[in-house]
Amino acid sequence: MKFDIVTIFPKFFESFKNEALISRAQKKDLVAINIHNLRDYADDARGTVDDRPYGGGAGMVLMFAPIYKAVQKIKAKIKSKKSKVKVIVFNPKGKKFTQEMARNWSKLDRLVMICGRYEGIDERVMTEVADEEISIGDYVLFGGEVPAMVVIEAVTRLLPGAIGKQESLKDESFNDAGKMGQEQLTKFIEYPHYTRPEVIVVKKKKLKVPEVLLSGDHKKIEEWRKNNSN
């Protein structure tokens, strides 16, 4: 699977691409992460990609033309007409990113992500370039780079071979959340986890691992985990 990120801050992704499981997924050819500097698609030598908003107001707005050119160039490199491609733009007013979305997107061939900055993006990018507007939460960030990293991690780890043990995905938080309404989402938060040592002393208080997890009785352990999943 290929991820294409359109951004004015390409260096944001240098360490992200080269660490931990994301790095390993690239080495195993499970994913390719392509960073596109939006300034490379500007019409002038200065690399201008933003301008003042019509109607006045604070801040600058990313222009339509450089983003359109970047996405068109990315699409031009796609050889097969059967390739499943989606273009998304990060926007606070967009659809909330969910585990169900991540699962659906893991079946794509290519995911193109447009990262906003400053005051926002020319609205025509949303209507004429992007297939979908996405938000990762009800808060405002400096730009779309962090959301892009969130999406890459959420999608990549669902690809076969991306994590050590595929069964690790079976009982995860939000695994079945897409089948329920938002009001029932909390029912799918994963059970508590414990590791060595068996007893930890904090301020003279002994914090012990639940005995059932030490019992070796897999049926009881499974029942405990089910009961302790919110």
Number of strands: 10
**Total domains:** 2
Helix content: 25-40%
Portion in beta strands: 15-25%
Name of the CATH first level of the largest domain: Alpha Beta
Largest sheet: 5 strands, parallel
Radius of gyration: 22 Å
Secondary-structure content class: alpha/beta
Compute the average pLDDT: 89
CATH fold description of the largest domain: Alpha/beta knot
Question: Would you mind describing this structure in some detail?
Answer:
By secondary structure, the chain is α/β, with parallel strands linked by helices. The protein has 2 domains: 2-156, Alpha/beta knot (3-Layer(aba) Sandwich), CATH 3.40.1280; 191-230. Helices cover 26% and strands 20% of the residues. It contains 7 helices and 10 strands. The strands form 3 sheets. Strands 2-1-6-5-8 form a 5-stranded parallel sheet, sandwiched between helices. The chain has a 3-stranded mixed sheet with strand order 3-4-7. The protein has a two-stranded antiparallel ribbon with strand order 9-10. The longest helix has 13 residues, at 64-76. It starts with a strand and ends with a helix.
Give a short synopsis of this structure:
The chain has 230 residues and is of the alpha/beta class. It contains seven helices and ten strands.
Topology:
Layout: E1 2-7, H1 14-17, H2 20-27, E2 32-37, E3 50-51, E4 61-62, H3 64-76, E5 85-96, H4 99-105, E6 110-114, E7 120-121, H5 123-128, E8 132-135, H6 145-156, E9 199-202, E10 205-208, H7 218-227
